[in-house]
């Protein structure tokens, strides 16, 4: 933990992009340093200061370790260790047959996304969380005032997705090196107004007019239509195969 804190202090001082490697696993992911700036959302100006945001949406390679308890010993798994903080068994194949290694993790409910961030923070000694809407849009735009064109070169959506998620980094990045901020999966964010979490950016089902930096959707009960549990699962969206997440690391 001391070493992790020291590394975090260096990153904070230099504010450079870095690659996180999960100890004990052949899993790594890149966090992009986002420059300071301002963005206005819902007529309110937001100051963005010293954060890092995931180069890609969280992939199964990383989410599997948390969701399927790959970091626990056989004895811990047998004892159902940490059960209250780990997802229950998902509905069928969690990747829906779209693809697994290198593909965006999907169908996690918002509480599962939050628990994942808490788990990763403990594993790494850094502060990982979901982005705020302001942080997400600021990073997704990367200084742009309009969506990139042609859109098919930068985003996975209705016209080019074959109705399924595609492998991360299959399209061009934005100006700051971020992939799939638009399309592929809609990404959980902390709302700029209200208390209910939202997803941003559109997804592989979205028509082009909805693949925008400003696209915002709240939770829809239809995302859990086939979930037989009452109350509905806090871990998985039975019909929310278009929902994913991206990480922010605090400075």
Task: Give a written overview of the molecule.
With 251 residues, the protein is an alpha+beta fold. It has a single domain (2-250), classed as paralog of FGE (formylglycine-generating enzyme), CATH 3.90.1580.10. Helices cover 20% and strands 17% of the residues. It has helices spanning 2-14, 60-67, 74-78, 110-124, 133-141, and strands at 18-21, 28-34, 37-41, 44-48, 51-54, 128-129, 186-189, 198-200, 216-218, 243-244, 248-250. The two termini are 17 Å apart.
Features:
251 residues, alpha+beta, paralog of FGE (formylglycine-generating enzyme), five-stranded antiparallel β-sheet, four-stranded mixed β-sheet, 5 helices, 11 strands, disordered N terminus
Q: Strand share of the residues?
A: 15-25%
Helix proportion range: 10-25%
Taking pLDDT < 50 over at least 5 consecutive residues as the criterion, the unreliable ranges are 1-9
Count of domain modules: 1
Oligomeric description of these chains = single chain
For the record, the CATH class is Alpha Beta
- Mean pLDDT equals 91
């Amino acid at each position: 933990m001391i070493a992790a804190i020291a590394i975090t202090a260096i990153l904070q001082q230099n504010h450079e992009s870095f690659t996180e490697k999960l100890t004990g696993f052949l899993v790594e992911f890149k966090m992009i340093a986002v420059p300071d700036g301002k963005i206005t959302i819902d007529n309110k100006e937001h100051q963005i200061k010293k954060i890092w945001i995931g180069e890609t949406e969280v992939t199964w390679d990383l989410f599997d370790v948390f969701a399927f308890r790959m970091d626990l010993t056989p004895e811990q798994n047998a004892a159902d260790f940490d059960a209250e903080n780990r997802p229950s068994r998902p509905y069928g194949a969690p990747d829906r047959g779209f693809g697994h290694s290198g593909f965006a993790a999907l169908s996690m409910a918002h509480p599962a996304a939050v628990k994942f961030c808490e788990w990763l923070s403990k594993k790494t000694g850094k502060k990982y969380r979901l982005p705020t809407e302001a942080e997400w849009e600021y990073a997704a735009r990367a200084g742009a005032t309009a969506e990139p064109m042609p859109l098919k070169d930068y985003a996975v959506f209705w016209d080019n997705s074959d109705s399924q998620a595609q492998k991360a980094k299959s399209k061009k990045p934005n100006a700051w090196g971020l992939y799939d901020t638009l399309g592929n999966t809609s990404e959980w964010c902390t709302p700029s107004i209200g208390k209910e979490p939202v997803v941003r950016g559109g997804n592989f089902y979205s028509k082009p007019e909805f693949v925008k930096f400003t696209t915002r959707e709240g939770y829809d009960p239809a995302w859990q239509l086939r979930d037989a549990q009452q109350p509905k699962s806090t871990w998985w969206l039975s019909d929310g195969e278009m929902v994913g997440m991206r990480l922010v690391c605090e400075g």
